[in-house]
Amino acid sequence: MKILHVESGKHYYGGPLQVIFLMKGLAESGHQNLLACPKGSAIAKAASELGVQVFELEMKGDLDVGMVGRLRRLIRAHRPDVVHLHSRRGTDVWGGIAAKLEGVPCVLSRRVDNPEPGWLARRKYRLYDRVIAISGAIRDVLIGEGVPPQQVEVVLDAVDTELYRPGCQDRGFFLSEFGLRENEVTLAMAAQFIPRKGHRTLIEALPAVLAQHPNLRVLLFGQGPLLPDIQALVQQKGLERAVTFAGFRRDLERILPCVDVVVHPASMEGLGVALLQAAACGRPIVAGRAGGIPEVVRPGLNGELVPPENPHALATALAALVSNESLRNQYGQAGREYVVSRFSIPAMVAGNASVYQAVLGCRRPR
Q1: What pLDDT, on the 0 to 100 scale, is given for residue 366?
Q2: How far apart are alpha carbons 185 and 217 in whole angstroms?
Q3: Which helix (H) or strand (E) holds 108?
Q4: Number of helices (H) and strands (E), helices first, in the chain?
Q5: Domain boundaries, the chain
Q6: Which EC class, in a word (predicted)?
Q7: Which candidate, 314, 328, 319, 326, places its Cα nearest to that of 213?
Q8: How much is the pLDDT for 363?
Q9: Can you give the pLDDT at residue 62?
Q10: Under CATH, to which class is 2-158+344-362 assigned?
């Protein structure tokens, strides 16, 4: 098969990372990949290193009607068997229209659980032969919006469990890189600074946790539009000594095994790649009970779930885990085993390929 992947994300995390996993696995199975992505995006370089033919296009968002023409010309020139749309920001609608006008089967990956108006969903999803939900929670949202159940397939996201492994290999680097002391307990959050990720909830919860555990240090990894607001909130609450804004890192596989607890108090989340990475590294997790998160974090097995936007509940769960090293180790080991058995890259690749085959089997030859 020849698959044209369309990914509008400019940064190399979350969805784009899954696209790289998928294209690599498909290529190893003998399929051909093409990638359309924005100019200057990080995924372009990563895909080129895999030998994928990359087309860097203008992708200006939901109002970029011209994307239809640009994608139509690309489809017409290379005649893929399937077009796979991996993101929104206009590529979902305009890419679906382009594929339909060119008569090519089209698959959409839905990565987020935020609802759309039913009237919009019922019209929009007619553009696609299949919709791939990355969690059961997202499938439920789609069906609730009126998308036919037979149109939606669940293919879970994956994590590289060989890259993300337990065991802090360089404790000295970890301590010096973030200015930590040996006796400090570290809490880490890796997420974009956007409202639904729950940074504000975490900062509101920290004073209660620090009152019980003054040796706690918090590392916030990521970037995004909400970053200045969260920095201001940290200053307002006098938490500068406890909280470090560590920026966007490309070496989390080196860092996560060294932290003590991973926190992710999101109010909306399709699944959570950072949670898969943390569990693969054998880290216990405290997260919001939202979206697909309960499919990664199982209370009493590898972490705890709390109600979203509830600083008191989050503080209680964090304090309990920070004070119990034995439980942290138990959760970490179980989390590693759970992720290895359920979220492997080969399973994700096979799941997507199966959807392509089903779509092609239902289509008459062009």
Answers
A1: 46
A2: 6
A3: strand 106-110
A4: 14, 13
A5: 2-158+344-362, 171-342
A6: transferase
A7: 319
A8: 65
A9: 86
A10: alpha beta
Measured CA to CA, the distance from residue 239 to residue 218 in angstroms comes to 10
User: Can you tell me the distance from the alpha carbon of 314 to that of 11, in angstroms, rounded to the nearest whole number?
Assistant: 29
Q: How far is CA 274 from CA 151, 160, 164, 191, 306, in A?
A: 28, 12, 11, 7, 17
Run of H or E residues at 338: helix 325-342
Asked if residue 13 has pLDDT above 50, the reply is: yes
First and final C-alpha spacing in the chain: 14
> What one-letter code names the amino acid at 292?
G
Least confident segment among 3-12, 173-182, 293-302, 319-328? 3-12
> Cα 277 to chain center, whole Å?
10
Bridge partner residues of 35 (DSSP)? 5, 54
Write out the H or E segment, with its range, that includes residue 221. strand 216-221
Question: Is 80 exceeded by the pLDDT of residue 183?
Answer: yes
Q: Which CATH superfamily is domain 171-342 in?
A: Glycogen Phosphorylase B; (3.40.50.2000)
* CA–CA gap between residue 125 and residue 108 (Å, rounded): 9
pLDDT at 327 over 80: yes
What's the rounded Cα separation, in Å, for the pair 262 and 318? 10
In this predicted structure, the answer to whether residue 6 has a pLDDT above a threshold of 60 is yes
Each residue of 220-237: pLDDT tens digit? 999 999 999 999 999 999
In 3-state terms the chain splits into helix, strand, coil percentages (rounded to 5) of 45, 15, 35
Nearest to 352 by CA among 121, 18, 14, 35: 18
Contact (CB, 8 A) for 61 and 32: no
Task: Say how far apart CA 325 and CA 306 lie, in whole Å.
Answer: 20
Tokens for 83? Answer: 């077009």
